[in-house]
Write a structure and sequence with these properties.
Layout lengths: L23 H4 L6 H6 L1 E5 L14 H6 L4 H10 L20 H10 L4 E7 L29 H11 L4 E7 L6 H8 L6 H18 L3 E5 L6 H4 L1 H10 L8 E2 L34 E6 L19 H13 L2 E7 L9 H17 L7 E10 L2 E8 L3 E7 L8 E4 L3 E13 L3 E5 L1 E3 L8 E4 L14 E9 L2
Helix pairs in contact: 5-6, 5-12
Length: 469
Amino acid sequence: MCTLLIFISLACLPLSFCRYSPTWESLDSRPLPAWYDQSKIGIFLHWGVFSVPSFHGEWFWDDWLTAKDPDVVQFVASTESPQFTYPAYAPRFKAEFFNATQWVELFALSGAKYVVPTSKHHEGFALWNSTRIGSTFQWNAMDVGPHRDLIGEISRAVKASSGLHLGMYHSLFEWYNAEYVQDRSNNWTTREFAASKTIPELYDLVNQYQPELIWSDGDWEAPASYWQSQEFLAWLVNDSPVADTVVYNDRFGGGDDSTLCRHGSFYTCADRFLPGKLLTHKWENAFTLDTVSWGYRRNAVLSDYLTSQQLVITVIQTVALGGNALINIGPRADGSIDPIFSDRLLSLGTWLGVNGEAIYETTPWSTQNETTQGSSVWYTQRTGGIVYAMFFPWPSTNATTLTLHAPAPLANTSAEFIVGMGGRCVELEWTPLPGGGGGGMVITLPRFPPGGAPSDIAWAIKLQALGPR
């Protein structure tokens, strides 16, 4: 029989009927809200003061001040005065071309189902009115730079768009906040920074904007007990405005008892995480279109970016292995999105417009992938016994057939080539694989006129009424 990987439990639904204690054992028992696994694709946004120099990446400040990266040191020396300090970039973060509605329209066209903006990165600059929590550290987009609630504008645009869910990235730590530096020097025996800034910020973001996903980061130095992560997460899933639907990642504490790849609604494990095998816990592959950086870089060259084909293939592989794909772009400091990011996202949206039924609301099949005739084949399935075989490139030597070894066809098995939006398919002929012992099938591929194929990246065959393997 096929082995199904099911991430959603019916033991305690709706989730509001459950109460979770501030322990990892209790929190880890919470079922994954269905929307997240069904969505498959999200958009990540790394945007902040680091977008002003737009050189080297989002770790620019730390690379300059602490790591003393020679490229960054030389860049600052050649572009700024000797007395220059990093916070002086903030007034140049104007966001004058930022239009949240236009952003969200692009994300919807990409086929994404959730959006995760950076509310605050490790530099500490907040993209919302963080002084509302009583902090005296008035370094945010309301007080400096654009003088706008950028997170509020993104949140409203996402929620006004049908079918999109709002997430929120938030860094627990800040490189050069004096209170954090002091707590670290005290070996986490004091909690001034966590108590006065980080945790109040998280509560404020959830209460004000009601994101359904918390993407925490900056977790690797201090333990979860310093952040009181379990207490916050218990409130999040019990009493917050999004208690029934919220999900959160695995970056809530470091040190010897790290939560990474151990505790969370979904695991991230590492940046650009693609495990190559099926995992027993829901996971996410957060990766960048600019393969060098999460933040925008003015000096990027074309070869630094994923091609449209690489993007689609990464999404296929991620989903077939049970993960979600969180695709990162870095907007410019002026609030515009570089055309190459738009091009890649729209290419993905075009492909999903044809083949989305093989991606959304699917689960991994008993076989995740195989290689045949020079093609890589990746499988997904959905309820009703439907299996999808997504393959790339086209079989070698201009073959007219595709041999699949994993499926076990029956006399009434059907094979259809997905050719258009709304599930339009072309029925395909097939024969049992000779000598396959009841397993495998040889499928006759359709002939398309020049330029008439539904894609030049990857294709999907829909299989129904297969037998067990």
